[in-house]
Structures are given as structure tokens and as C-alpha cells.
Write a structure and sequence with these properties.
Elements (H helix, E strand, L loop, with lengths): L1 E5 L8 H10 L5 E3 L6 H9 L3 H4 L2 E3 L5 H4 L4 E4 L4 H8 L7 E5 L2 H6 L6 E4 L17 H8 L8 E4 L7 H7 L3 E4 L1 H4 L4 H12 L1
Parallel strand pairs: 1-2, 1-8, 2-3, 3-4, 4-5, 5-6, 6-7, 7-8
């Protein structure tokens, strides 16, 4: 089962160094999602990441930085999905991902995505009062038919305590956010969860 890490929504002191440590510990895919940060701040952040690790970064905002820094992919949010995919169709990156929150959204996706996040699967660690909806059982039934869809990664409340459940439900991967960043040692927490996935 694949594991990816999603950034905190804001840049914090020492984040680039910590991210480099995560890459050195084996992180293969990091989602850079900082919707409130300026393009200039994101550029400064990316400059702090060794070039050999930048191909492991999937960017969510300021998408033109994908080419400027030779990043690994682009994530298209649900609210921008239709317009951005159409605008990018002639220059889509090799790794394109998106997020959905309902079975209807999942069924409506076309086949251009390498993987998709479905959330929330569990009660969120980082977002107050954000937890699973009644749609989860139907989503689980749908994704178990692997011929239907690209890989679906569980997002929302995923931690070492429930990572086995993610696999049991039929998800192809897990997206980690709160479990890593709320930990006293994000690198160790990531490694623990990744090792449980294997």
C-alpha cells in the first residue's frame, strides 16, 4: 500500500529541512498543499529542497511552478477540476491526482488521474469536526472493483492506529497529514506508518 504525506497548509520554520529528512527516510511522494501561501513563498520553500528530491513533490497551488522546478506532479482540487484539466490537457504531467468526497464525484472522474484521494475516511486529526460521511460504505464497495477506477487513497484521520483498516477497506494507499505533523517526531511517525503498510 502506497503512503504519501500532505503538507501543513502554511510554511513553518525548518519545514524544508524536515521534508528533506522525510525524503532521505524513504518518502517517495509529498503533496505541497499551501493554499494561502504566495507564489514567492512557495518558490523560496522549493529552493530549500535539494533538486534530486523535487521530483517527489506534487504541487496543489501555483501550478506553473511544476515546470519551473521540475516537480513530480500536479494535484487538481475538486473545485478547479474541470477548468484546469481542460486548460492543461496538452501539457498534463505524468502524475496527475485529484480529491473527491462523495461516490458521485468518484464515479464522474475520467481516466487521466494516476490516483485519487477520498476523504474523510476517519475522524480528522487536523480538522475539527471533520469525519466520515454515510457515503463511505458505498465508496468501499465501488473501489473494491478495481476495474472501475484508478487507485484510491484514503485521506482523513489516517494514523498508525488505523492503517491496517485502510488496507482492509480496499484502499490502494494512504495520505498522511495530521498523524505526521502532530507527532513530536514526524520522520519517525511517517516511518512507522509506512512500515505498517508494508
Amino acid at each position: 500500500m502506497e503512503t504519501v504525506v500532505i503538507s501543513k497548509p502554511f510554511i513553518f520554520d525548518g519545514e524544508a529541512v524536515l521534508l528533506s529528512r522525510l525524503f532521505e527516510a524513504g518518502l517517495e511522494c509529498f503533496h505541497l498543499r499551501k493554499p494561502e501561501e504566495s507564489e514567492e513563498n512557495i518558490r523560496t520553500f522549493l529552493e530549500g529542497i535539494p533538486p534530486e528530491h523535487r521530483k517527489k513533490i506534487v504541487i496543489h497551488n501555483h501550478l506553473k511552478l511544476f515546470k519551473d522546478y521540475q516537480l513530480g506532479g500536479v494535484h487538481i482540487s475538486g473545485i478547479h477540476r474541470d477548468g484546469l484539466v481542460e486548460a492543461l490537457k496538452d501539457s498534463l504531467p505524468g502524475l496527475l491526482s485529484t480529491s473527491v468526497h462523495t461516490l458521485a464525484e468518484l464515479k464522474a472522474l475520467d481516466g487521466i488521474y494516476r490516483y485519487v484521494f477520498f476523504s474523510p475516511v476517519f475522524k480528522s486529526i487536523s480538522k475539527k469536526d471533520y469525519g466520515p460521511s454515510g457515503d463511505l460504505d458505498d465508496v468501499v464497495s465501488y473501489i473494491r472493483d478495481k476495474d472501475n477506477i484508478c487507485p484510491v487513497y484514503a485521506l482523513g484521520g489516517v494514523s498508525a492506529k488505523n492503517i491496517f483498516k485502510v488496507g482492509e477497506l480496499g484502499f490502494s494507499g494512504a495520505a498522511l497529514c495530521g498523524a505526521v505533523w502532530a507527532s513530536d517526531d514526524p520522520v519517525s511517525e511517517f516511518c512507522k506508518i509506512r512500515d505498517l503498510c508494508h
